[in-house]
Amino acid sequence: MTLSQQFWQLELKDYSPAHKLSLPVDRQRLSTDQRSGSASTTQLIFDDEICTSFLTYASSHHVTLFQLGLSVFYVFLFKLTHGESDLCIASINANRYRSELGNMIGMFISTLPYRFELDPHWSFDEVVRYVQEKCLSILEHSHYPLQHILSDFHLTQSNVSFLETMFDFITASKDVNYLSLNGVNLEQMSLNESYKMTKFDFSLTFEYSPASDDNQLSCSFVCSSDLFDETTLVTIGRRFQYVLEQLFSSKASTKCIDLYYTSISKVDLILLEEVEERQAIMFHRLESIINEAPASFAQCRIWYENQRDVDTDQSFLTMHNMPFFYRLYRGDILSIEQLRHALHLTVNKHPSLHTSLHFDIEKNLLMQRVLTQQDINNDTFTITESSYESEEQLSNIMHEEKYNPQLFNLAQGLVFRCHLVYYKQISSSHLLSDKDLLIFNFHHALFDFPSMKVFHHDLNQAYTTGQLLYDDNTNLRYLD
């Protein structure tokens, strides 16, 4: 066994040749499907700052542009595949490993596997050093033909997935762009292709044109349209550009990565408008928000179980009541009138606490609807008062709050109730004391446990000050 044969056997040891990268394809290709060869494409042209930073980094770290571009591509694939760290792709090698091949005309290019096992905790600098070492070792054994590598593993090109992802870096030579024949100068022209073909599922090609005054650095994704729509590829291209901006740009609007210290797992693929959209959906009440929308999957399950449980024996109930039981510290008192006012302010502030669930027959959907003052004839919640004398009576009251589904009415938006339980008799002084019990009860279809912290905050503010500030970041909401 030759040294090169040993090298490639170690290089691909334990790697599954059938493993496909988890790329964000629009369609899957079955093994029986015929490849069309048609391509979806997108091109990126990098500004002068990124180009200069890219070239400066390569020069200062003594790496080739190919090695640096490949490092960026591996970090991008690591993020695009949601953390796959054992990555194997194909790349093209000039394969002129002997000096006498330098002046010969012929087809010497070889395709070789580039397998890199990344550590998610590495910084970008560490990735570049690792890629450089790998590239140099591969270069040393690049003369060993791909068909020999595959046959050593009893494989054929048709069943090796890493050959479907390709990387290349082209440096345009001035000698090629311009031709002079006995003083007659000719300039190379580019062909505007309206229809492209591809041999690969997913390929990235960098192009560096040092003779160009501007737009020296660009890249293009050319991918199989059997798998990718053009719009998907445009988004992938924008994510790749954002990765380069994080690594090589100093713009104030761009999240910059410390190339020496920061882990590559911190590199972000989420575009700025996607961040803003996510924040708007999750954390802000928009002015244009509608009052009615389809219920979430979890709400549909809860609503269905609630409908089923109305006439069901309590021993078989699915619990959706969320009671919270409180008793005052010894010597403390609580004003019931103040509490009523604070509860009204809190419930009115939060749409979740006055939202109804109803089944729309025409749409065949369960809908959730925020009730406005025009919709509500009575209070948006109930305050109940009762008394107890024995621990057994108190236990029965607490059990009823926990297990009785009829305490709420989802169709009317009655999803919150307050129960004041007095010791022996209802207070005539409108005060709660340490032997009394205070119960806040919510229906789980419109409330979850993290919401209780927000409820506490607002209730305390409303009880203490008699008013409640509206803050979009603390509005209750139900997230599925």
From TrEMBL:
Which Gene Ontology terms cover its molecular function? catalytic activity; phosphopantetheine binding
What Gene3D superfamilies does the record tag this protein with? Chloramphenicol acetyltransferase-like domain, Nonribosomal peptide synthetase, condensation domain
Pfam families named among the record's database cross-references: Condensation (PF00668)
Kindly list the biological process annotations in GO that this record carries.
amino acid activation for nonribosomal peptide biosynthetic process; secondary metabolite biosynthetic process
Q: What is this protein called?
A: Condensation domain-containing protein
Extract the coiled-coil ranges from the record: none
Condensation domain location is 5-250, 291-465
GO CC annotations on file: cytosol
